Amino acid sequence: MDPRVGFVTQLGMDPLTAIERAGALGFDYVELMLDGETAPHRVADRHDEFADAVADADLDVLVHLPFGGVDIASPFDGVREGSCRAIEDAIDVASALDAEKGVLHAQTNVWGPAWDAEELRPHLVESVAHLAEYGRERDFEVCVENIPRGHFTTTDVPDVVSEAETSMTLDTGHARIDGYDADGMANLVRDAPVSHVHLNDTRRARDEHLAFGSGTIDFATLFDAFADDWAGTLSLEVFTLDYDYLDVSKERLDAMVDERR
User: Fold this and answer.
1) pLDDT in tens, 10-35
2) CA-to-CA distance for 10 and 216, rounded, in angstroms?
3) What single Pfam family name could you report for this chain, choosing any that match (predicted)?
């Protein structure tokens, strides 16, 4: 495997500082969380600042597309269509920064007892396929992330991305919540078009987002499942505002990846 490595920005981080530190720590890219201070319209208003910061840091850009308040699988046409437009707007902003791919939550927020997954699945696949094509027209790859314990779980994502003709983001912590151990995650890598990984370490089946190597996920087993020529992206998704934790996480990750190069 020959991946590039980055990290996901967190709420509370100054985004321009995060970009500068990503470059200083030797990351290949930064994955901007397009919400809060870095919501798409706010990034668009400061486009030149972000573009200059990325250029100065000599980084590539990925994004995490908005998900709060977005429902691309809604049975209600207006909600679903408006949600797709919101994602389109985010893709446009990301593309203006030359972002190459973005993480999409393929999920719904509908009232659970009233709707089952089979009714909603066609809406989901149609929306993902539309957004994937919208992205391709802008040289932007849409990578569907596995979200646990919803209408659509980790187990559903490989079929959704296959039907929608796009790729997958594997979130390791989310997979663990859905009952996957390292061997199960490795099988996902072998069977699904995983282009991007959120390295979300945990000690148990919870969304803990620990520093890489601080939990109990067997990443070595997962990485061994990637093909020798796999050249995807690995994002450290650590819930911290302390860049020292990202630094030590990168050191541990680099050492593990180097063993497999």
Assistant:
1) 999 999 999 999 999 999 999 999 99
2) 22
3) AP_endonuc_2
